[in-house]
Amino acid sequence: MAIDIVIRDAEKKDLAAVIKIDADISIGVYGSVVDKKAYWQEIFDYYVLREKDKRVFLVAEEGGEVAGFIVGEARAWEFGSPLCGWVFAVEVSPARRTHGVGQMLFKAICDKLRQTGVSTIRTMVETDNKVTLSFYRSQGMRTGKHIELEMQI
Hints:
153 residues; alpha+beta; 4 helices; 5 strands; 23% strand; globular
């Protein structure tokens, strides 16, 4: 039996579902819920409630419920790079990870960003996050020419 998944722009009503998916994932990663409600409210304010322009926040809806989401935008001259797309977050409900939701979301954001003139997509992933690295690699992403540098202050 095929399951219908609809990819659409996020709406204000989706905030609670996004927060729940993120909390469910944090239990699996950290062993407890990491409260990021304020963070997601800020992201919604910027990516959903304002004029979209080159910002994208998509949700995957399955059976009338939000099954996952992806957030990104087109930016130019970050770190000297011409216009490119950045994916900041992709999360799929743990209960729906075998339905192709992440792949559909990633394809949809690539299509949306391509419409803004983007021909390259970038993201950052922690080096020990094997699940996320595997997902992005399965979508065709590879190590790029930029290297992230950081230090404690």
